[in-house]
């Protein structure tokens, strides 16, 4: 059982494409492994929660997912860890996010089934932070993304610059978000990806 903790900071960004790649919730572990290199670099294990919000088109006050940052692994360690074998791209999991491996001292995509295969700009962005961020305790809503309660809609979770990411470190806002999630939803998967 993963130890629950109250975050000291929220790292918030907009999930522009919700197709089970980033975040990936295959195997019941939430991973953020590709895209969002700055979020992956800055996320602090055991202290931060990552919050993925919906797009303007789908409702800016809707939450796609929340994960506590339980672990960070380099790409090669992630690739070789048997816990994450089912996150490798396959016919069953076409949007698997576990596809970088050390080959002759360099990280390379291991399969043409990887969604970023043949996309050098995306590969370069991924490799800016060759780290998988993992949350064993998470809430994923996807297409069922609920609206945040009214008390949270005028906070930095929703407002402010919607490009890139933003930090929320107001203890009251953090406590309200945690209390709302924990009171209304068990950790786990509560919907299918919105864009699949």
In short:
This protein has one domain (9-189). 18% of the residues lie in helices and 24% in strands. The protein is built from four helices and eleven strands.
Provide tags for this entry.
196 residues; alpha+beta; 6-stranded mixed β-sheet; 3-stranded antiparallel β-sheet; 4 helices; 18% helix; 24% strand; globular
How does this structure look, described?
The protein has one domain (9-189). The protein has helices at 37-42, 75-80, 120-128, 171-184; strands spanning 9-14, 30-32, 48-53, 63-68, 71-74, 100-103, 106-109, 131-135, 138-140, 165-168, 188-189. The strands form 3 sheets. Strands 10-1-3-4-9-11 form a 6-stranded mixed β-sheet. It has a 3-stranded antiparallel β-sheet with strand order 2-8-5. It has a two-stranded antiparallel sheet with strand order 6-7. It has 4 helices and 11 strands. It has 196 residues and is an alpha+beta fold.
């Amino acid at each position: 059982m993963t130890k629950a903790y109250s975050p000291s900071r929220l790292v918030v960004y907009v999930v522009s494409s919700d197709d089970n790649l980033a975040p990936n919730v295959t195997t019941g572990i939430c991973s953020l492994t590709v895209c969002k290199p700055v979020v992956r670099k800055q996320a602090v294990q055991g202290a931060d929660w990552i919050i993925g919000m919906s797009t303007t088109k789908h409702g800016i006050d809707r939450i796609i997912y929340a994960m506590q940052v339980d672990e960070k692994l380099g790409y090669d360690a992630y690739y070789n860890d048997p816990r994450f074998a089912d996150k490798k791209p396959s016919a069953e999991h076409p949007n698997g996010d576990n596809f970088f491996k050390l080959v002759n001292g360099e990280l390379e995509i291991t399969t043409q089934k990887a969604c970023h295969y043949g996309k050098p700009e995306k590969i370069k962005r991924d490799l800016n932070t060759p780290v998988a961020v993992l949350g064993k305790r998470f809430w994923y809503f996807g297409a069922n993304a609920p609206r945040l309660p009214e008390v949270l809609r005028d906070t930095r979770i929703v407002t402010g610059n919607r490009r890139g990411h933003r930090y929320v470190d107001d203890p009251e806002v953090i406590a309200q978000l945690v209390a709302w999630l924990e009171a209304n939803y068990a950790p786990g998967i509560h919907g299918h990806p919105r864009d699949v």
